[in-house]
């Protein structure tokens, strides 16, 4: 039987490519958008990761989701540092979640409350995605807007407590393969992973509508 980590990675590959190929992300990585678009994207991440990490303490002892509650992954504090740099000390009163972001965050909260395997699906799509592809975004931001390498503005993308990302990803896949549950539950989790990518892509589409190719 195919391992759960292989199943979830294979099944989500198409959605992953859609996200990578979104107009907003293509424009951002192509240096076609200004720093305000990057800051707006960072705002949306704060709402999404707030949902992921506010639900984590309740799940720490859960047999399914508990092994994935890893403090070395937590991003909220780094996002808050970035937002203070990008938006100023009063950033909390000036940011807002797009409707697509609210829908995304609410789904994460729902899974954290009632379905641990669904929470794991969202955990996988976010943390492993930003640990991997997020480094391309960091490099782009540093080059396009002169941010200090791995410094203010891009701290979200710097996983200081994970010195060996490749080894961490292997251990993460082992955790996925050890998730308890029957084949039906695994398939439900895979479907939720696809849903997570779709929700994320909807955020990109909304950002693309808000920033239709600014120089």
From TrEMBL:
It comes from the Bacteria. CDD domains: HemeO. Keywords: Heme, Iron, Metal-binding. Pfam families: Heme_oxygenase. This is Biliverdin-producing heme oxygenase.
